[in-house]
Amino acid sequence: MLKDASVNSFPDIAEKDINGKEVKLSSLKGKVVILSFWASWDKKSREANKSLKSVYKKYHNRGLEIYQVSLDRSKVLWENAVKTDDLPWINVSDLRYTESLAAKQYNVRRIPSDFIIDRNGDIIGKDLYGERLEEKMRELFR
């Protein structure tokens, strides 16, 4: 079956951000996207966000966006973490914790977990952190 050019190769996500506005992952078509799954209560997730901030700062103006899905249950804790850690990118959640629909769509088994989606809508990387993530970004933004 031929792939319809208007259809992405990734499952779409449509969740609400901390302001209650629904944001679709597919709205970022044409950008390089890091789809990141995390939770405010997870120490490794919070650490991973620090390196994501560095990558975001370096490549955002060149077409990088981060669409981050929180696996939190508490809106207060989630909002507090986004504000405390000063996360400048799209951050959404259905507040269903381990029952998150988005996490199920992407078969997320642990956090943090991420997927790299290229400008064509193809998933081209998974669970890249630190130097491996930097290397992939350099490759994509040559």
Mean pLDDT: 93
Tell me the number of helical segments per DSSP (H or I, 4 or more residues long). Answer: 4
Q: What percentage of residues falls in helices of 4 or more residues?
A: 25-40%
CATH class: Alpha Beta
CATH homolog superfamily: Glutaredoxin
Main beta sheet = 7 strands, mixed
CATH architecture classification name: 3-Layer(aba) Sandwich
The SSE order reads EEEHEHEHEEH
For the terminal residues, how far apart are their CA atoms? 32 Å
Spatial ordering of strands, largest sheet: 2-1-5-4-3-6-7
Estimate nothing, just give the exact number of structural domains: 1
Characterize the structure shown:
By secondary structure, the protein is an alpha/beta fold. It has a single domain, classed as Glutaredoxin, CATH 3.40.30.10. The protein is 30% helix and 24% strand. The chain has four helices and seven strands. It has helices at 43-59, 75-84, 101-105, 130-140, and strands at residues 14-17, 22-24, 32-38, 64-70, 90-93, 113-117, 123-126. A seven-stranded mixed sheet has the order 2-1-5-4-3-6-7, covered by helices on one side. The longest helix has 17 residues, at 43-59. The protein is globular, with a radius of gyration of 14 Å. The chain starts with 13 loop residues before the first strand and ends with a helix.
